[in-house]
Every structure is written in structure tokens, then in C-alpha cells.
Amino acid sequence: SSDVCSSDLFIHISDGGSADVDFDFSVNGAVGATNVGGRPHLKALSSAITVSNFDIHLHGGASWLYQIFVNVFADKIKDAIVTTFQTEFTTGIDTTLNALLAKVPLTVPVDEYADLSTALTADPLFQAASFLTVFESGQFLLHSAPTHSCPLTAKPLPTVFNKDYAQFFLSDYVFNCAGWVYLEAGALQKVFNQSDIPPEVPLKLNTTSFKYIIPKLYETYPNEAMEILMFAPEAPVTTFNASGAFIEAEVLANVSVLNPTVTNAFSVGISVIAGLEIGLSDESNITGKISEAE
After folding, report:
1. How far apart are CA 12 and CA 8, in angstroms?
2. Does the structure show a pLDDT above 70 at 276?
3. Which residue in 92, 95, 108, 93 sits closest to 38, CA to CA?
4. Cα dihedral sign for 221, 226, 228, 229?
5. Measured distance CA(216)–CA(196) in Å, rounded
6. pLDDT tens digits for range 168-191
7. Average pLDDT over residues 279-289
């Protein structure tokens, strides 16, 4: 018989240390923007990633040995870092930022009657002197029927007025469209009764108060309560010119007797034309002044 002895040989090497990585990093990229469905859509057009003064220092243990291999592959490590940064830059613009922009609502609720559209109407425009012009709708929408759009047409606006860093252009279309929306929504009317009249006002909404002004009214409806329906038969019209903003509106008042049904007593029409001067004060506050009213 014979005995066979065998053994396995294990060589265990352990080491420890630290590493310092130093480099300078710069990014020079170009990003384009287009209008896609009313939202800005970004695309990375080019990217120049520069990594300079790249250096890796190993410390401790057999770092002198590892440093040899690191120095040999230093350029490949740097190229891998540049490639990673370029990929992240493109992905961040084309995917991440566009995903965030896709969540931005295209309409902002104003009140129970109207919403305001912030959708783009054209591609953002990059101009000389580093100007970026963004074209937004600014259209008021009927809250109850947002697809029932304003029938008015907006006038073209300038893209640059002077060399100021921030410039804002507003068309009278915004206000005229708002007037149309509120008229359609039935918001340009209000019924007033006695509870709406301040107690210090001597005139009461009662036929007795009109006894000597309109005798026939009092004779027909003695001591009856009254109400006033004030409404705009048409949307107010706003006009912008070099002198400022002018608003023209017509207001009608239907005065009725409650007896107990509503019986129209008489109507009054009022035409209002008001001018408004808007400016920017030294404190960068928007100021307004009514220049005339008829």
C-alpha cells in the first residue's frame, strides 16, 4: 500500500493606501431650442469637454508599484472621463431637461372664468449680442371651454427694442382677448340690490326714492324693492399707442322692480374711455397713471 499526501498552496497579499486625483475641467457646449407642441424642446448641438492638468497620486503600501501602471494608463483614464462627461452633458440636455420641461403646464388658471396660455408660438430666437427672444401666446382661454379660442388676431411684436439686458413686449391683444373671454363667461355683469348699497348712501333701491324723479314708476309700483343689473354688452377694447394704453367700454344699467316678478323699469347707458400711462420708475417698479377719462 502507499499513502499519497497533497496540499494546496495559497498566497495571500493584502495592501492598503489612498489616491488623490487632480484635474482642471471646462465645458463649452451649444444648445438649440425649438417649439414642440407649445413647449421648448432642447437639443445638445455640440460639447467640448476639456480635462487638463490631470494627475493621479497613490499613497501607502506598494503605491510605487501601482503608480507605474497608473502612469501608463493615465491618458486612457482621462479619455474615459472626458467621454463620460460628454455623454452626461448630452443626456442631461436631451433627456433629463426635456423630461422636466414636458411637465410644465401650458396654461395657468387665472380665476373661475379664465386661464392664461403660456405656450410658445414660435421657436426661441437667438440673436446677436447674446439676445434670446421667447415668443409666448399670452392668450386668455375660457376656463369652461378652453378650445373655444379667442377670435382676435395678435399684431406682430418687435424682437429687440434697445440694448437693455431684459426686454418685455406686451400686445393689446392680451387685454382684448381677456375682455372677450370674460364677456363669453358672463363675468362682465353684476346685480346690485339694497344689501349692496352702503348705508350712508341716501338713495335707496326702492320705488319710493324715485317718487319725485319718476312719478309714474312710483304710481305703478308703490314702495316696491328694486335691483340694478349692470353689464357690458360688448367686450372692452384696449388700444396701445405711443401715448399709452386706452380702454373703451360701454356699460348698461337695467333698473328693475321686484313685484314679486322682475319688471324692467328703465335702462341707462354709459360709455367710458380711459387712458393709462404705464412706466418704469427708478426703483424698477411698474407705475400707472390714468391720464384721461370720459
Report:
1. 13
2. no
3. 108
4. negative
5. 26
6. 788 888 999 999 999 999 999 999
7. 46
Specify the pTM. Answer: 0.69
With a cut of 70, say whether residue 280 has pLDDT above it.
Answer: no
- Cα 242 from Cα 175, distance rounded (Å): 17
Alpha helices in 19-133 (DSSP H): 63-72, 74-91, 98-101
Closest CA to 33 of 43, 25, 24: 43
Sign of CA dihedral 58, 59, 63, 64: positive
Q: How far apart are CA 69 and CA 183, in angstroms?
A: 78
Q: For residue 285, name the pLDDT band (cuts at 50, 70, 90).
A: very low
The tens digit of pLDDT for each residue in 50-94 reads: 777 777 777 776 667 767 777 777 778 888 888 888 888 888 889
pLDDT at 86: 84
Place of cell 440694448: 163
In this structure, the dihedral spanned by the alpha carbons of residues 276, 282, 284 and 288, taken in order and rounded to 10 degrees, is -10
Q: How far apart are CA 62 and CA 258, in angstroms?
A: 102
Residue 61 gets the label, from left (phi > 0), alpha (psi -120 to 50) or beta, of left
Strands (DSSP E) along 102-194, which ranges? Answer: 107-109, 114-117, 125-127, 131-133, 140-142, 189-192
Q: How many angstroms separate the CA atoms of 250 and 233, rounded?
A: 7
> Considering just the CA atoms, what is the radius of gyration of the chain in Å?
37
CA separation for the pair 73, 66 (Å, rounded): 11
